[in-house]
Amino acid sequence: MKRWLQVRRLDLGLLTILGMVLVMPLIRDWSITLPNLFGRDGSIIPLPLVLPFAMAIAVAFSLTTGDPLLERVATRPILLLDSLYAGLMALVSLLICLLLEQVFAIDLALEAGRNTLGYIGLVLLGRRMLGVQVAALVPIAVVLGLALLGISSNGAFYWWSWPFVPDNNLCSWGVMVSLLVVGMLATLIRPSGLPVH
């Protein structure tokens, strides 16, 4: 088990979480502007809402490590361990973000934690459908699409733009948790042909 954690780069995952904790207070007032396809003004996206891409990329990278041929014949349940690892990284990130918002009053921290769940879920789904090498691009593409299409002409986010709505939107939580759970379940399915890697 210790060797598997080393191969999956648990240290990188924990360092990424620490990096998010350190960076979040510094960027809480920063934002990026993207074109609004339905209005004249650009769409303002708070940077903390896209910071969880770092965690999704770290998880995607950790799933590229190891020897796929050896893991395919391993006696340990590698796919289950990968699924639990991704879920644990998402859960720890969410708890840390909850702590940042409740104890240190960091705005948008809970939304960032919520987004981490969905972004990691999208990585897992991307890994299963497109392969591990491009899995990290899936959450970036989905969120960019939602940023371009999910904002009305008056600059308000539609209800289905789940990464950008406030943390009291229960629908966004449902989408994020569902993405993570479905992604974790998809990770358990061994492809009939070549290994997932």
Write structural notes for this entry.
The longest helix is centred in the middle third of the chain and has 27 residues. The protein has about 200 residues and is mostly helical. About 40% of the residues are buried. Strands 1-2 form a two-stranded antiparallel ribbon. A hairpin with an 8-residue loop joins β1 and β2. It has eight helices and two strands.
Roughly what percent helix? 55-70%
Biggest sheet architecture: 2 strands, antiparallel
Q: Based on helices, strands and strand pairing, what is the structural class?
A: mainly alpha
Q: Please give the oligomerization state of what you see.
A: single chain
Globally, the shape reads: globular
Q: How far apart, in Å, are the first and last alpha carbons?
A: 20 Å
- Gyration radius (Cα, Å) is 17 Å
Strand arrangement, major sheet: 1-2
The total strand number stands at 2
Key attributes of the depicted protein:
197 residues, mainly alpha, 8 helices, 2 strands, globular, disordered C terminus
Outline of the structure:
This protein has eight helices and two strands. It has helices at 2-7, 10-27, 53-62, 68-72, 78-104, 109-130, 137-149, 170-187; strands spanning 31-34, 43-46.
Detail the topology: elements first, then pairings:
Layout: H1 2-7, H2 10-27, E1 31-34, E2 43-46, H3 53-62, H4 68-72, H5 78-104, H6 109-130, H7 137-149, H8 170-187
Antiparallel strand pairs: 1-2
